[in-house]
Amino acid sequence: MTDTLKIALAQVDLLVGDVEGNAERIRDWVFKARDELGADLVLFPELAITGYPPEDLLLRASLHARVERALHRLAHEVRGIDVVLGAPMQDERGLHNSALLLRDGAIAARYDKQILPNYSVFDEKRYFVPGHGACVIQVRGVPLGLTVCEDIWQPEPAARAREAGARLILNINASPYHRGKREERLQTLRARVRETGLSVLYLNLVGGQDELVFDGQSLVMGGDGEVRQSLPAWHEALSLVSVDCPAGDAPLQPRAGEQAPLADEAAELYQALVTGVRDYVSKNGFRGAVLGLSGGIDSALTLCIAVDALGADAVEAVMMPYRYTASMSVEDARSQAQSLGVRYREIPIEPMVEAFMTGLAPEFEGLPRDTTEENIQARCRGVILMAISNKTGRMLLTTGNKSEMAVGYATLYGDMAGGFAPLKDVSKLWVFRLAEYRNTLGAAIPRRVIERPPSAELAPGQQDSDSLPPYEVLDPILERFVEQDQSVEQIVRAGFDEATVQRVATLVLRNEYKRRQAPPGVRVTRRGFGKDRRYPITSGYGRLLS
């Protein structure tokens, strides 16, 4: 048995479905861990070979053939260091979410994930069958217990590893971010440490994948429940953990190492949005991003996120004024675009709107003006932005926030048109907080954009408060109804006006059809409008809310 075991944590950003590319990146990181850090063992995230989550790609036989070839090649190319990585593996029982030990040209051990999450954004029982029993690997004579992601959230897998002789727990993850997730992880890891007496090496994925974003923040927790070492959030990193290995079978204690600085909640959330936009645009092969810059706070914040994610040279902002657009909106949009150094255009939409109104005049004859005319304005803007996106190869970012999406305060094929929605899971009150935070990094959003009353500017003197409750009232109701699944009665008991709650709840349910047609966006709460919220479009539930 060695006196000191050196284990490298490879916190990497991988691409779902790019089996060969992922294998190549894993190999390069393995060589760094071996040659530069002198590691005995290097860990990679859950399902690293396929990327996470591969979803229905797992139903394709061709994917598994590619995985088998890539693993075979990787095992033969990597020598002089042990490697643990995640991969889908099949046997007579079915498909497993596995952690593999590569050693000396072969797969030397395999652990199949025992606890398969099937809630929120997770759908693993659709694809995998659970494993049974512990897997304890010997690395230079030191027994280490393998676990995969959700296994650490329940007591049994770690307990089984301890009973099987493990002196340290290795946990490879693809654990997506939401606000407050780091503290949840710490509490969970401390519970496992208390129960087993074993230290845990927790390795997490980093980067964006469709609506999910992975924060990394891998860490080492000692047997006393204290964090001994941690990796940065939102960045790839390779870090060496040194573990003293005295004789006997007592639990091992990792040495203290470097700890990455922790960000406050607003900074962490902002970086989550930046990471999600960066990876969605770049991994899908777009040349940059384009968005409509209205002079309002939502588009102002979206522009900052796009610039910080992609660089100013890759971003284009378009102001599309109409007769109801305030002069301050044009001035503020122009000022922000200039301060951030992005490509900026002003394209008035009056001629286009009037052309539509002229063409529709016979159809509309005798009918009063209503939101139809407002929606035509929004749809003219959507056509312009999609045309620019098509012509330039830039991804169109929509700028709507979660509060608006919840109650349907958005126009289908208008301001909802686009490929990605950075603020889709960010409430309006959080938009204000993030705008203030971004300005602490350098003045980017004009002060009056933050301070002026929100308005869609689709009618004279229009303000959001004409159609919606104040956001200080609306957002807490939405959080309870959408994210916490509270009933109208429960929300009213919490102190909210019953008529207002009924109205908001009705709007949420009535506008499911809009959200179903909306672009994906970064999920940053426990319950976003995406794969973890699956409500029927056609439903009688809203007729009798409870």
UniProtKB/TrEMBL annotation:
Belongs to the NAD synthetase family. In the C-terminal section; belongs to the NAD synthetase family. This is Glutamine-dependent NAD(+) synthetase. The gene is nadE. It catalyses: deamido-NAD(+) + L-glutamine + ATP + H2O = L-glutamate + AMP + diphosphate + NAD(+) + H(+). Gene3D superfamilies: Carbon-nitrogen hydrolase (3.60.110.10), HUPs (3.40.50.620). It comes from the Bacteria. Its EC number is 6.3.5.1. Pathway: Cofactor biosynthesis; NAD(+) biosynthesis; NAD(+) from deamido-NAD(+) (L-Gln route): step 1/1. Deamido-NAD(+) binds at N375, E404, K514.
